[in-house]
Structure formats: structure tokens, C-alpha cells
Amino acid sequence: MLMLGFAGFLGLLKIVLMALAAFGLFDAAFRREDAFRAADKQNKVFWLLILGLALVVSYLFSLLSFLPIIGVIASIVYIVDVRPALKQVSGGGRRGGSSSDGPYGPYNGGR
């Protein structure tokens, strides 16, 4: 009974890690090539290959082996480091507004 629960947990964890790699892969696929160069990160093809390999390896191999762990690390590096730099370069983040800005401009307190 305990092994069945552990196998179910590993199955869920495998799905989550595959979703993480797939999210990174699709996000990298829709970013512009020049944003990678402007953010001083590796090029787009490099990240597409790494994240694609991470997705395939996490699907094919057990989580208890070494290769899926490397794929998870690569996916986390992309999501935590590369993606915010790309968003900042391409203008996807906050665009210099203040914390009181709403969707239609600054909030002035009803004045």
C-alpha cells in the first residue's frame, strides 16, 4: 500500500516537472531572438534545445535517475533567470509606472 502511494506521488511529480519544462519551452519559442541577445543570455536555439531535451528526458526516464534532475534544473534556470531578463528587455514587465497606476492611468484618489 505504501509503495502504491509513493508511485502515485512520483507520477504526479513527473507530470508537474514535465509541465514546468513544457511551459519553459513554449515561452522560449514565442520570445524574439534579439531579446536573448539583448538580455545577454544564450541564444534562442540553445534554450529551445535544452528545454526540449528536458521535456523529453523527463518523459522517458524515471525521476530517480540523474538526467531528469538536470532537466529540472535547466527549466528552473530558464524560468527564474532568463525569462525575467527577456521580459525586461522586451518590455513585458512594468513600464515605469507607479504603484497607484490602474489599467487606465494613475489613480488620483477621486480628485
Order of helices and strands: HHHHEE
Rg, rounded, reads: 19 Å
Tell me the distance between the termini.
Answer: 65 Å
How are strands sequenced across the largest beta sheet? 1-2
Task: Give the key terms.
111 residues; mainly alpha; 4% strand
Task: Describe the structure in brief.
Helices cover 68% and strands 4% of the residues.
How does this structure look, described?
With 111 residues, the chain is mainly α. 68% of the residues lie in helices and 4% in strands. The chain has helices spanning 2-29, 33-38, 44-60, 66-90; strands spanning 101-102, 105-106. A two-stranded antiparallel sheet has the order 1-2. A hairpin with a 2-residue loop joins strand 1 (101-102) and strand 2. Helix 1 packs parallel to helix 4 and helix 3 (44-60) packs antiparallel against helix 4. The radius of gyration is 19 Å and the shape is flat. The termini are far apart.
SSE map:
Elements: H1 2-29, H2 33-38, H3 44-60, H4 66-90, E1 101-102, E2 105-106
Antiparallel strand pairs: 1-2
Helix pairs in contact: 1-3, 1-4, 3-4
